Backbone:
């Protein structure tokens, strides 16, 4: 059995234990990641190779000198080797546009 190579993506993240032949996988394919790195919860994983991640953040309101909670939903590519499911806490990284709405890829499942 030949051990498959895992690329160095330049981010401190644990590589997946499984192997895939996906070209759009940052670990086993040729997709480069750059820009923002976010952590959020998977809200939906119904579409094939796609997850919707809810990202929570705080926004400062100068008038009241307080912070308010806000959230955003981000569509991310889900490689077969990672296979994140609904309810997982994941890290996603920005990449080139993969489709009309996908600009992020899942790089690891935290929990």
Residues:
């Amino acid at each position: 059995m030949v051990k498959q190579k895992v690329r160095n993506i330049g981010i401190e993240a644990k590589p997946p234990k499984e192997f895939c032949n996906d070209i759009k996988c940052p670990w086993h394919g040729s997709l480069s990641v750059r820009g923002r790195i976010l952590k959020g919860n998977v809200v939906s994983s119904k579409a094939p190779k796609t997850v919707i991640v809810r990202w929570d953040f705080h926004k400062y309101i100068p008038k009241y000198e307080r912070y308010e909670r806000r959230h955003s939903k981000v569509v991310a590519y889900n490689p077969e080797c990672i296979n994140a499911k609904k309810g997982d806490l994941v890290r996603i990284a920005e990449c080139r546009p993969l489709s009309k709405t996908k600009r992020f890829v899942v790089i690891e499942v935290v929990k």
Summary: DSSP finds no helices and five strands in the chain.
